[in-house]
Each structure stands twice: as C-alpha cells, then as structure tokens.
C-alpha cells in the first residue's frame, strides 16, 4: 500500500497509512503486514538561534518500537565526520541511525549517541538504531561475539534492529573464503536467541533476493520473521521486483543508497524539472519517490544542512503521472559493486570476479586474519598460523 500525505503548513500534523512489521510470537500475530499510522510532524525548539527540530514520519512496530521513514545512513562516512553527522541528525529530529560493523565507524557513532543522551538531546528509547552482522560471522559463537562488540562500540545495551549484512558465509577472518560449516539458518537461530535475551529488539536481513528471502521465511526452523530486507533502491535502479516480493511477504523494505550517490541522478533534466515543479531539491524528489512506495530510506550525509533537507519530504506528494515518468530513470545503476554482490547490475561481472577474488585471497587468508569490526583500529589485521 503506497504511503500518502497531504500538503500542510509547517506546524500541521500529516497522517498517512503504511504497513508495519508483522507481529511474531504473541497473540496479536498476523500474516503479512498490518496497516499503521505514519505521523510526520514539524515543530520548533525554543527561540533564538536554536535549530528547528523536525520529528520525522515514523512507523509503529511490534514490541512498541518505532522505525522512522527517513534515517541517517553511515556507510562511507569519513572518520571523525560521522560523529558530527550523527549529532547533527539527532539535533534536527532524525531518530533512525543505520550502522554496520563493516562501515568501520560504529565506535564514533557510539560517542555521538552517548553524548546526545548525556546532554538530554534525546532519550535512548526514542532513537531507532540498526546494525549489521558481517559476512564472516555466521557460526553461533561468532554471531554473539559480533553483536556484543557492536554494542560496546555503540555504547548501547541493545540495538533496535540487527541484520545479516549479506547472504553469504565466509570463514572467520577471511574475505570470500566459504565456510562449509556455517549456514544462514544456523546464524538466524542464534539471532533469535539474542532477541530473546534483549540484545536486539528485532532482526532482519540485507541484500537478500527473492529466493534467499523465501528460503528463510519458509524454513520451519524460523521462529521470528525477518523484520525487514535492506536493499539498494533508487530511481536509477528501482529493484522493483524484489521490493514488491518482499512487501508481499509482509517484510518491510529499507532502501540504502536511495540517492544513487547523487551525480547524474541530480542533474537529469527530468529530476531538475520535477524539483522546480514541487519546489524541492532533486534529492528530496528521489527520497519522496521511495517513501511513496512504502519504502524506508536511509540517505547518507555528513552535512547538517543536507541531513535536514533530506527529512523535509512530508509536505508534498508526487503525482501518479510523475511517478510513471520517472521510470525512464531506471537504467540499472548499482552503487553496491562488491564482488560478492549477486544483483543484476553487477551479476555478469561478478560471475568471474568473485571466483578470481576467492583464488587470489586464498593464500593470504592462511597467514592473515581480518577483523572487520576493528577497521581503522589496532587489531584489524593480525597474523595467524597457516594450519588454523
């Protein structure tokens, strides 16, 4: 069901229908998603020079959690800049911070969160924090250790959402080296235990295609349904079939790289014309396009001005005609070019790049261990015995 809003003044309340995650494991359990309420508010915070705070449209989830429709992505955020970006985002009302161990900056995000909580800028329970489990942590003991490391880095007692980053299983400390003794199903079972222990409020997946998502959903061992599938989606690659399939199974979609990293998307004549028509920026048009598909967006930015602008998308609605015209932008451009990606825009290239990378990294993996959760810090690379 598409999200709709109506134009209002800056102090008005905007209400719209949206899906919420299906409840898992209680008497209110439902198949698929249940209609919810998106409440986008704008308010000012005091007077003088204090910045305006915008409480971003958010979705009520089971277990009384909330996932705002617009969050802050931290992928590729430069060292030191991400701390200020998170602080700025929280000041302007962003309440959804998307992180991952592999981004190498969770410890900086943790500093920003701790400082904001200590200052009283925002309460912990009002911030939705997502993190992700890296590819070489699929065995139960590794899963638990990874989340505990993430919690220490983020200075939190729990994350609101914990995702399997990619649907692959690598040997611990390696890149592209398969772990024949690990599986997604076993990993998911341990994630379910971590939910029961309160270390993660919800669990989900990222970069799963239709077959991989269906396999997890239909596995009789799966007790807790994935809360979301975080995938790449933007006007230059809608990933439409996967979006529709995921939503049809009652799983929310979260779009990373929703701005396609700017560039040619922002300068396309159609985007320029639509921006002028609606009195918005091309970035706001792109984000609004996804939100109207009932897709949560997590644009990355380290600019306080752009972070605030990215959230200002709830006072207009793209017409059906404009949404249809935007289909011409869909040229299959992917920003996720890693050799382990199996998605269409890079699939043909990765069919030979992935095995090549596996061969080239095999010998180094015998002598060198890589701890992704220590990127940029001591312990990131260590020596190991070749027989281990």
UniProtKB/TrEMBL annotation:
Residues in NADP-dependent oxidoreductase domain copies: 71-328
UniProt keyword terms in alphabetical order: Oxidoreductase
Keyword Ion transport on entry: no
Organism per entry: Ostreococcus tauri
InterPro entries, A to Z: AKR (IPR020471), Aldo/ket_reductase_CS (IPR018170), NAD(P)_OxRdtase_dom_sf (IPR036812), NADP_OxRdtase_dom (IPR023210)
Single GO term (MF): oxidoreductase activity, acting on the CH-OH group of donors, NAD or NADP as acceptor
One Pfam entry name: Aldo_ket_red
Record PROSITE patterns: ALDOKETO_REDUCTASE_2 (PS00062), ALDOKETO_REDUCTASE_3 (PS00063)
Protein name: Aldo/keto reductase, conserved site
Presence of the UniProt keyword Oxidoreductase in the record: yes
């Amino acid at each position: 069901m598409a999200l709709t809003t109506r134009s209002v003044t800056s102090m008005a309340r905007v209400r719209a229908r949206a899906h919420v995650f299906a409840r898992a494991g209680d008497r209110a359990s439902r198949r698929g998603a249940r209609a919810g309420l998106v409440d986008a508010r704008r308010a000012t915070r005091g007077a003088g020079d204090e910045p305006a705070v915008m409480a971003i449209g958010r979705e009520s989830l089971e277990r009384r959690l909330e996932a705002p429709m617009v969050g802050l992505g931290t992928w590729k955020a430069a060292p030191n800049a991400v701390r200020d970006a998170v602080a700025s985002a929280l000041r302007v009302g962003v309440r959804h911070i998307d992180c991952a161990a592999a981004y190498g900056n969770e410890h900086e995000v943790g500093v920003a969160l701790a400082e904001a909580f200590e200052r009283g800028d925002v309460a912990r329970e009002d911030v939705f924090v997502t993190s992700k489990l890296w590819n070489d942590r699929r065995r139960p003991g590794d899963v638990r250790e990874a989340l505990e490391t993430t919690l220490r880095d983020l200075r939190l007692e729990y994350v609101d959402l914990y995702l399997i980053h990619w649907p692959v299983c690598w040997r611990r400390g390696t890149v592209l080296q398969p772990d024949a003794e690990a599986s997604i199903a076993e990993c998911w079972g341990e994630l379910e235990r971590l939910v029961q222990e309160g270390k993660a409020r919800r669990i989900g997946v990222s970069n799963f295609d239709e077959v991989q998502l269906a396999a997890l959903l239909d596995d009789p061992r799966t007790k807790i349904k994935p809360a979301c599938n975080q995938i790449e989606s933007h006007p230059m690659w809608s990933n439409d079939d996967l979006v529709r399939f995921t939503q049809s199974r009652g799983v929310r979609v979260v779009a990373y790289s929703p701005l396609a990293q700017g560039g040619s998307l922002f300068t396309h004549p159609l985007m320029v014309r639509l921006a002028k028509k609606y009195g918005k920026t091309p970035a706001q048009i792109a984000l609004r396009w996804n939100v109207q598909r009932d897709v949560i967006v997590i644009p990355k930015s380290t600019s306080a001005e752009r972070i605030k602008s990215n959230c200002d998308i709830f006072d207009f609605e793209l017409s059906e005609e404009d949404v249809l015209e935007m289909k011409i932008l869909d040229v299959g451009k992917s920003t996720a070019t890693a050799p382990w990606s199996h998605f269409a825009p890079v699939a043909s290239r990765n069919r030979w790049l992935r095995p090549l990378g596996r061969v080239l990294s095999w010998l180094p993996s015998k002598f060198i261990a890589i701890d992704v959760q220590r990127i940029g810090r001591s312990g990131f690379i260590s020596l190991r015995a070749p027989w281990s």
